[in-house]
Amino acid sequence: MLKTILHSNPPSKFILIEDSLKEGGTDVLNYLIHLHTEQHTEVHHFIFSGNFEKQKHSNPRVKTYDFTSDFQGWFSQQNPNINDIVEGISTKTVVVIDSLAHMIFQYGVSQCYKLIRYLKERPNIIQVATILHTDLVESVDILPFFEHLSTFCMIREPQFNKTKKRVSCIYKKPSGKITRLKDEYYFNEGQLFSATIKTVNPDVLVQQSINQMLSDTLTTFRLSLDDKERESRDKVVLPFLPKEVTPDKEESGGKITYKFDEVDDWDEEDPDDDLNI
């Protein structure tokens, strides 16, 4: 499901990846950049964290902007004006922001929210994708605002497997339907592989455990018979039923046998029920 959504056409308008410095989601962001450049789409990559020189792309379809080298003005340089860049985008473009947390440090929550909403509403912006390191944000109260703004939100979960990573996803379809799912994914030679994790309703598990416990504790014998036991029961000859007697084993003397009437039902729980007592 994760791969299907990332490859959807038209693309999901605003992808928000929530991760931590330990459980990073940069691999998905880089995969999106590669995916769009393979489709001959122009990508504007805003770099707000890390070393800018190491993150520059050699692909001519990717334009990188340095917001890390001198955002405090210590080296008498001036960072690019992000509003001028956004206003100057006129072609079909994908905008990638490598760290929303660092962007918030520079511009504040309100301005970042307005900027992303503006990018999301512009028809020539095919997609906006960003990562929010939740452990760098002072207040978790801002998360619902950006989650509400997103059309696809990925939340990284603790990794228990060396290769496969897990995410909880919230996908909002253009029709307004919201789908929640859990996926695990991994990359192999640049290709993305993902599978949906099936979840079980905990109420169903609890009820099944209760039923099993009651079955084990409240009964000391089985109430049903298997085929072999049923066959053995049918072979038992009751003493009041007539027996087949062969000539060489003919018995002498008086004996009492019981002959069933048409209305008799000898297999009932109460054998005297037909006596109307």
Automatic annotation (TrEMBL):
<dbReference type="InterPro" id="IPR027417">
    <property type="entry name" value="P-loop_NTPase"/>
</dbReference>
<comment type="pathway">
    <text>tRNA modification; 5-methoxycarbonylmethyl-2-thiouridine-tRNA biosynthesis.</text>
</comment>
<dbReference type="GO" id="GO:0033588">
    <property type="term" value="C:elongator holoenzyme complex"/>
</dbReference>
<feature type="region of interest" description="Disordered">
    <location>
        <begin position="246"/>
        <end position="277"/>
    </location>
</feature>
<keyword id="KW-0539">Nucleus</keyword>
<protein>
    <recommendedName>
        <fullName>Elongator complex protein 5</fullName>
    </recommendedName>
</protein>
<feature type="compositionally biased region" description="Acidic residues">
    <location>
        <begin position="262"/>
        <end position="277"/>
    </location>
</feature>
<dbReference type="GO" id="GO:0000049">
    <property type="term" value="F:tRNA binding"/>
</dbReference>
<keyword id="KW-0819">tRNA processing</keyword>
<dbReference type="Pfam" id="PF10483">
    <property type="entry name" value="Elong_Iki1"/>
</dbReference>
<dbReference type="GO" id="GO:0002098">
    <property type="term" value="P:tRNA wobble uridine modification"/>
</dbReference>
<dbReference type="GO" id="GO:0005634">
    <property type="term" value="C:nucleus"/>
</dbReference>
<comment type="similarity">
    <text>Belongs to the ELP5 family.</text>
</comment>
<keyword id="KW-0963">Cytoplasm</keyword>
<dbReference type="GO" id="GO:0005829">
    <property type="term" value="C:cytosol"/>
</dbReference>
<feature type="compositionally biased region" description="Basic and acidic residues">
    <location>
        <begin position="246"/>
        <end position="261"/>
    </location>
</feature>
<dbReference type="InterPro" id="IPR019519">
    <property type="entry name" value="Elp5"/>
</dbReference>
